Amino acid sequence: MEKPKKLHAALLSSPGMGHLIPVIELGKRLVVHHGFEVTVFVLSSQASHAEAEIIESTMTPKLLNVVELPPPDLSAATLGPDAGVIMRLVVMMREARPAFRSALAAMEARPDVLIVDLFGTEHLCTGEELGIPKYVYVPSNAWFLALLLHSPTLDKEVKGEYVDRTEPLEIPGCKPVRPEDVVDPMPDRLDQQYREYVRMAGETPTGDGILLNVWEDLQAETLAALRNEEFLGRVANGPVYTVGPLIRPVRLAGLGKELLEWLDKQPSESVIFVSFGSGGTLSAEQLVELAWGLELSQQRFIWVLRQSTVKSPDGSFFDAWKGGAGDEVLCFLPNGFTTRTREIGLILPSWAPQVEILSHPSVGGFLSHCGWNSTLESIVNGVPMIAWPLYAEQRLNATFLTEEIGVAVRPKELPSKKIVGREEIEELVRRIMKEGHTTRARVKELKTSAEKAVTKGGSSYKSLCKMKEDCHMRIHHIKKAR
Ligand code: UDP
């Protein structure tokens, strides 16, 4: 039989570190483990140091081709100054269609397969036009995917606002979703973002399959429910492939001398890392409570400190990772905080080498906004969490982490609803750092299961092998049908 040709995959990433990182990592995995050639098309939001660094990391050794698409012209788009993050991402991706088409046309050879991330579903038709298989990469978890895929049905069946309901939202075969946990565009059904969300939800299953950044053992029941004929079978063209955990690898010099020396001096698993992802911010009042909570707990900490410049639940998604914020954030802290905590704490303004910090043996806890990349990075490093969800699908993730897999503790009320007081923070930090033996043991079990999944022969490895095989089949069928 003829040896199948090497496949060339075109991957399209939407803006934002939370998308760029998992797309690049998927690309690397396809090259290194599965013999693909990969070109990643990046729609960078704005030039940012962190984004440039991620792209740079693919150059040595050069595993992938990275093509940066020019920033889309948004002048014709009706995007008000108050437009939310989802709306802005959607419009940027929509307006990038001509640039993406031209970039594909400029390639030496047409790609064999197209993989877009969640915000790129409007680009699936480009795959259709090129006559190649097309996939959607959802860099999140199976419960989120189930809610997403069921959202068009909920949209038809549920009257009124989801958040006003007293009953949870039922998803076939899955754990129901509490109204307060719904993903961000869902709380306001009159907002244009919500309509875009329902559109994306309808488009996601129309490709030849969905790639998900989880592994089988993490969410076996939800995955089984999703794959049931009565659920995915009704809406999807192709299977769900579990490909994770795909996270950024640790860079050898990533920590820098000062941070490494400080961490090396601390006892094993004694430091809690506090960070709210690439864009999460807290109000000034909440910052003060958090500072007091950390100080009262007397636990060692590293805190990525960022103060909100905009009054929005989305934080400052589009500018937080640009860096440049200096020590001015320190003025939001209680008087004398930095002096009193000098021996136990480090404050890093704006941005930190997160994966490197989490992988250091001195780190034993993570107070996190529960973005999916951060969540995976914590699990893969065996670090239990304090779940502090802020936006996007983070409330869902926080519930999953605390109530389903037991790797996190959380405040009694959602931080987006009520300021979490210093005593509660102190207690949560102590609980996770001092008493959380079961939580720690559980996250270490999952660390092992994650490692198994991505090694050769593991479930995620096999899943990508299957995806590759299915790709060849689809290509064969498309050719035959011509
Ligand atoms: N990140 C980082 N340093 C920071 C903040 C974030 O390296 O100071 C990385 C983090 O390791 C993760 C990504 O940025 O890989 C954030 O993705 P996530 O899904 O956790 O959250 P998002 O930023 O999309 O809300």
SSE map:
Blueprint: E1 8-13, H1 17-34, E2 37-42, H2 49-56, E3 65-68, H3 85-95, H4 97-105, E4 113-117, H5 124-130, E5 134-138, H6 142-157, H7 192-203, E6 210-212, H8 220-227, H9 232-235, E7 240-242, H10 257-265, E8 271-275, H11 284-297, E9 300-305, H12 337-340, E10 345-349, H13 354-358, E11 363-368, H14 372-380, E12 385-387, H15 394-404, E13 408-409, H16 422-435, H17 437-454, H18 459-481
Parallel strand pairs: 1-2, 1-4, 2-3, 4-5, 5-6, 6-7, 8-9, 8-11, 9-10, 11-12, 12-13
The protein binds uridine-5'-diphosphate.
Number of strands: 13
How many helices in DSSP terms? Answer: 18
Largest sheet: number of strands, sense, barrel closure: 7 strands, parallel
Find the structural class using helix and strand composition. alpha/beta
Could you tell me which ligands this complex binds, including any ions or cofactors?
uridine-5'-diphosphate
Measured by DSSP, the beta-strand proportion falls in 5-15%
In the sheet with the most strands, the strands line up as 3-2-1-4-5-6-7
Unreliable runs, pLDDT <50, ≥5 residues?
310-316, 320-325
Tell me the domain tally.
2
Rg is 22 Å
Give the helix level as a range of percent. 40-55%
State the oligomer.
Answer: single chain
CATH first level of the largest domain: Alpha Beta
> So what's the overall shape?
globular
Overall average residue pLDDT: 91
What is the CA-CA span between the terminal residues? 22 Å
